[in-house]
């Protein structure tokens, strides 16, 4: 009970501060469970015994309270990919801002989806845990007073696609620690399930597959998230068009695709109309891209789209992928074609294009260069601009709050360094309301996707070769899509722009789990020079966890995870019911 006492105090304050905005409460027990998505029993990470985890169905400006009970045998953090946590990096769920939740402990996240709409997902951010599951969807709906640029669909379907290994995440982690490659994945899951048996020689009998049931003539919104470890996937639905309408919080110009490449960490929304004759069920396919397809045939996810009047099971060959096994020009042209709908509102009634990013003077330019893995001090590491990030024991934001020196350095280079690669905790130093241009240069041989926490950025350009200042002549300065995760093709660059309107420490990382784990990340430190703590930035939460140099400030919490006591979880549920009642009173309901 003591563990949740601070939450009650926080709730009263939050209710007073956000009395006009509704609350959404979630009580999660994060545990291991046994599943057999590819026909072999293995340990996965589940939330409330669900794999994948539950979808959070929210609306713009909702206040979100998530009580997380860590019933794993290792530390845990949950990060919320694409949720901006306006001026509140304390809730971001990464090591630069928050101490991990110890095994058996609970911690409560409290944040607002301020001025956001769209399709996002959450996942555990530590030590390759996402490769074992723990992910789920975040749907942020428009408020009723805001019109959307398409008719209301007849249904809303969330679909998680991603490569998958039969080895558990601790085994994968050890492989990386030992300097080994993860190798080819064992398959692709769709909503945590293996492939439909479209080919008897490729797919074993008895594997559970995903079936999506639909009504003829209806139109459904599919929210598709690539939650895998490292593989770009081509997504398609047999004989159906995919009408792209939104990506990671921005409405796009509506355009039809027969297939679309979805890279690791990316999310898209499509409208799909059930306009076929239902002579049989239809394949839903996610297959590996930019690989030798004859060798990677097993890395294909297959689900079933089933009309209510279907006349039989799906059979025959899968719909063809793009015919460019190694040529990435098709994929880059796809990405370039995705444009923001500048005339429609999103979270607010004013058009998305009313912020004219192309006319703003750039304050700082950073070129972040990725190279193939290197050996540093005898260990295999990955780098950005010659620096392999080493997370300190004390979170960066916490170190700043308590004026702890030498935890990190503010010397991340604006351009890649030419000397030997180094391991250090180097951070990008910037200022509140600066306008940044960041160029991601990928000199590796595989696609990397890059994500920035706390912000949506405009994707203004991408091309092959080495970026130079002359490359700016190709930038799209009007309707570049605004999103939080972008692909960077091998031997190519992608340029983004962002307005630093949210103080704090914000993680910049690759979403590819292996290269992230080996050091390819940094943080942007955004400080208000006028001393904006408690003015432009939210104060630290009362339930803050302490670790590293501040571990002596942490009060002990008796382990009460479901692995040690089932009754404790029931007690937490009871306390949250009490909490809801108290909040309802505070809000005047």
Automatic annotation (TrEMBL):
GO molecular function, one term: metal ion binding
Listed cofactors: Cu cation
Entry keyword annotation includes Metal-binding: yes
Annotated signal sequence range: 1-19
Pfam families on file: Cu-oxidase (PF00394), Cu-oxidase_2 (PF07731), Cu-oxidase_3 (PF07732)
Keyword annotations from UniProtKB, A to Z: Cell membrane, Copper, Glycoprotein, GPI-anchor, Lipoprotein, Membrane, Metal-binding, Signal
Membrane topology: Lipid-anchor; GPI-anchor
Localization, UniProt: Cell membrane
Any one cellular-component term (Gene Ontology): side of membrane
Family: Belongs to the multicopper oxidase family.
Protein name: Monocopper oxidase-like protein SKU5
Species, as recorded: Urochloa decumbens
């Amino acid at each position: 009970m003591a563990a949740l006492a601070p939450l009650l105090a926080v709730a009263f304050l939050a209710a007073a501060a956000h009395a006009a905005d509704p609350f959404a409460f979630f009580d999660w027990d994060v545990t291991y469970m046994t599943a057999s998505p590819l026909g072999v029993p293995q340990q996965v990470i589940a939330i409330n015994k669900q794999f994948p985890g539950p979808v959070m169905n929210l609306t713009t400006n909702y206040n979100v309270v998530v009580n997380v009970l860590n019933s794993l045998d290792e530390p845990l953090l949950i990060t919320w990919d694409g949720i901006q946590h306006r001026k509140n990096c304390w809730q971001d769920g990464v090591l630069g801002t928050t101490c991990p939740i110890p095994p058996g402990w609970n911690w409560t996240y409290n944040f607002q989806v301020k001025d956001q709409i769209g399709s996002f997902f959450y996942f555990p951010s530590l030590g390759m845990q996402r490769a074992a599951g723990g992910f789920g969807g975040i749907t942020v709906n428009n408020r009723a007073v805001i019109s959307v640029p398409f008719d209301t669909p007849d249904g809303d379907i969330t679909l998680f696609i991603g490569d998958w290994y039969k080895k558990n995440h601790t085994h994968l982690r050890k492989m990386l620690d030992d300097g080994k490659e993860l190798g080819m994945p064992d398959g692709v899951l769709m909503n945590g399930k293996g492939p439909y048996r479209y080919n008897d020689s490729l797919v074993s009998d008895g594997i559970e597959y995903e079936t999506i049931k639909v009504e003829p003539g209806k139109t459904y919104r599919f929210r598709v998230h690539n939650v895998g470890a490292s593989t770009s996937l081509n997504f398609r639905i047999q004989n159906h068009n995919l009408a792209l309408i939104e990506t990671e919080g921005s409405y796009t110009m509506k355009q039809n695709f027969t297939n679309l490449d979805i890279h690791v960490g990316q999310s898209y929304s499509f409208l799909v109309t059930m306009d076929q004759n239902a002579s049989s069920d239809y394949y839903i396919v996610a297959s590996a891209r930019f690989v030798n397809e004859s060798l990677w045939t097993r890395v294909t996810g297959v689900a079933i789209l089933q009309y209510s009047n279907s006349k039989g099971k799906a059979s025959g060959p899968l719909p063809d992928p793009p015919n460019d096994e190694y040529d990435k020009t098709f994929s880059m042209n796809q990405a370039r074609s995705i444009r923001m709908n500048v005339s429609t509102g999103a979270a607010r009634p004013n058009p998305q294009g009313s912020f004219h990013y192309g006319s703003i003077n750039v304050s700082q330019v950073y070129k972040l260069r990725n190279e193939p893995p290197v050996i540093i001090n005898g260990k295999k590491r990955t780098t950005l601009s010659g620096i392999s990030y080493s997370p300190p024991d004390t979170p960066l934001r916490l170190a700043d709050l308590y004026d702890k020196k030498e935890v990190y350095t503010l010397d991340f280079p604006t351009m890649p360094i030419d000397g030997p690669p180094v391991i250090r905790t180097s951070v990008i130093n910037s200022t509140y309301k600066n306008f940044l241009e960041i160029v991601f240069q990928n000199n590796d041989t595989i696609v990397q996707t890059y994500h920035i926490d706390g912000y949506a950025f405009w994707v203004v350009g991408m091309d092959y070769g080495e970026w130079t200042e002359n490359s700016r002549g190709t930038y799209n300065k009007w309707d570049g899509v605004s999103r939080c995760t972008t692909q960077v093709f091998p031997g190519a660059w992608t340029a983004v722009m962002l307005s630093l309107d949210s103080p704090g420490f914000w993680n910049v990382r690759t979403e590819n789990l292996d290269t992230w784990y080996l050091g390819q990340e940094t943080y942007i430190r955004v400080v208000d020079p006028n001393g904006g703590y408690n003015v432009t930035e939210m104060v630290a939460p009362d339930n803050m966890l302490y670790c590293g140099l501040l571990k002596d400030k942490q009060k002990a919490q008796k382990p009460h995870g479901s692995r040690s006591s089932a009754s404790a979880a029931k007690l937490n549920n009871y306390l949250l019911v009490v909490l809801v009642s108290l909040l309802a009173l505070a809000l005047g309901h």
